[in-house]
Amino acid sequence: MASFAAGILLATAISSAAYFSVKSEASKAPVKTTEKETVTSVQPSEAEMIADLESSGYIVQTVEEYDKKVKEAKAKEAKATEDKDKEKDKEVVYRVVINVTDGMTSIDVGKMLVKAKIVDDAFKFSKAVEKKKVENKLRPGSYEVDSDMSQDDVIAAIFK
Fold first, then answer.
1. Overall pTM surpassing 0.70 (yes/no)
2. Residues 3-12: pLDDT tens digits?
3. Cα 5 to Cα 13, 17, 21, 43, 66, distances in angstroms
4. Residue 39 contacts by C-beta under 8 Å, 6 or more apart in sequence?
5. Which of 146, 142, 112 is nearest to 126 (CA)?
6. Which long-range contacts (CB under 8 A, 24 or more apart) does 113-119 make?
């Protein structure tokens, strides 16, 4: 067991020494030049860099151009959101003719109004009719109502 541990320690030491010596040698590699030669890195001009990037398919723009395009996109998004809000404000008005026959009750009328999207809940409509004490005033006939009308207006139109 001790021999195995010593072998692992020795292998680790050798690997570490090899790793760090190669790394340090590569970073300290001397550049051979004569006294007359000077090593200068050739950096392309801005126009050359832009041309190279554009030829590779990139779009090059200044910070001002980028900021301008971002502002335009935000303004366009705000306008689109505003247009959607205006469309939501234009609510659809449902108009329907309710045909009341003999034997129908306020709950039957409420169910028809729910199907026509005039009221949300038939039971609540029936309770509102009972609260106004007009459930016995339901007469056969055709009644025109729309979704712009309040619940009280619908009750007044149908229960005369």
1. no
2. 899 999 999 9
3. 12, 18, 24, 53, 61
4. 31, 33
5. 112
6. 113/145, 113/154, 116/145, 117/147, 118/94, 118/145, 118/146, 118/147, 118/149, 118/154, 119/151, 119/154
